[in-house]
Amino acid sequence: MALRIHFSADDLARVTLVRGPDMLWELVLSLAVLQSPRVPPSLRAWRSDARTSLTAPGLSRPTRLLTTLVGPVGDFPDFLTPRHTSGFPPALDAVRTTPRDVLLSDLSGVFRDRRPPSWVRELAGGRPRRLAAVADAMRAYGDSVLVPQQRVIEDAVHGDQAVRAHDLLHGGVEALLRGLPPPLRWSAPVLETDYPDDRDLHLEGRGLTLVPAYFCWGMPVTLIDPELPPVLVYPVARHEPRPAAEPGRAAELLGRTRAEALHALRAPLSTTELAQHLGVSVPSASRHAAVLRDCGLVASTRHGATVVHAATPLGRRLAGSLPLARPGDPGSRDPRDTRDTDTHAHEPR
Question: How confident is the prediction along the chain (349 residues), in pLDDT tens digits per residue?
C-alpha cells in the first residue's frame, strides 16, 4: 500500500521546507515511540530515559491523557500539530484555541472504531477546560522528555535541512524531492511512499510543506484531513548513541585545518567539496569531519553515494569565535593535517 502525492507545475513552485524542528510534530511522534514495542536502536536510549522521567509525580496523568489521543500506531488528531507556529509556547497557544468544529471532526475520525472516554467526548464538544488540560499535558510532557533532547533533535534536523538545501541549490526542486530518504520515491510528477493504506493526495496548486522530524521513523506521516494545507513529515538520519568523546578529543579542534573546516561547514559541503576547500585528500577531510562530528560541532548525513556535512548550531557559534591563521604565519601548520599522506578514499564522498 502506498501514499501517492500528485504534483502540478504550480505545486513544484510551492514546495517549502520548514526552518528548524517542529516541536509539536516531534512531541506527537515521540508519544508513538514511547509506546511502541519496537523502535530503532537510535531511539531506545531516549525511550528508556523518557519512561523513567514520566514516572515522576505529576506526570503520569498528563501522559495517560496524551497516549489516549496518540497511540503507538494509527491516526491522531490533526489539531495537535497546528500549522504556522514558531516555537513551543505559540504552538501550544494555537492548540488551546482550536475551534469546536475542528475538535469534533478530528476526534470523530480518530475514535471512529473505538468508544472514546467521557473526557474525550467533552473535548469533542468544545469544553474549554478539557482543551486546556490537553495543552497543559503537552507542555508538561515536552518539558520533561523533549527539552532535554532538544539539542540532539535540532542537530539531526539541521543536518537533514543542510542536505535538502544542497540538493535544491545544485539541482532544483526535483533534485530535492528525488533526494528524500527511503521509503519516499520521486517519479515525476508523483511522490510515493509506503503507507498503512492506499491513498492519493492531489495537491492542486497548494504546494507541499516538508517537515523533517527526529522522532519520525519507518513511514512518513501526513495530516488526516485532505482539505488542510498539505504537509509531509519524514524521518531524518539519526546516529546510534555513542560514548561521549574523551576530553582530549576537544583539543584536536585547535589546529588550523579543522578551524578552517568548521568555518567552511557553516554552509553544507560534501566530503569531496570539503577536501577541495581545505586542499587535503578526501580521507583526510573525512577524518577532520569525523572529529568535529564526535565533538557535536558537525552533523553528517548520507545521501546516496554522498556524505554531506554541516555545522551544528554549536559549531556555528564556535566557528564565529575561532580566528583563522593565515598560511605562513607561525604555527599555521596543523601537525594533525594529513593532507599529503592519504592516497585512497575508502568511503563514499
Answer: 999 999 999 999 999 999 889 999 999 999 999 999 999 999 999 999 999 999 998 999 999 999 999 999 989 999 999 986 667 888 999 999 999 999 999 999 999 999 999 999 999 999 999 999 999 999 999 999 998 898 889 888 988 888 898 888 889 999 999 999 999 999 999 999 999 889 999 999 999 999 999 999 989 999 988 889 999 999 998 865 555 444 444 445 557 888 889 888 888 888 999 999 999 999 999 999 998 888 888 888 877 778 888 888 778 777 766 555 443 443 334 444 444 333 333 343 4
CB 325 within 8 Å of CB 256:
yes
Sign of the C-alpha dihedral computed for residues 129, 130, 134 and 135 taken in this order = negative
Domains of the chain listed by start with CATH number: 2-18+157-222 (no CATH), 23-151 (no CATH), 247-319 (1.10.10.10)
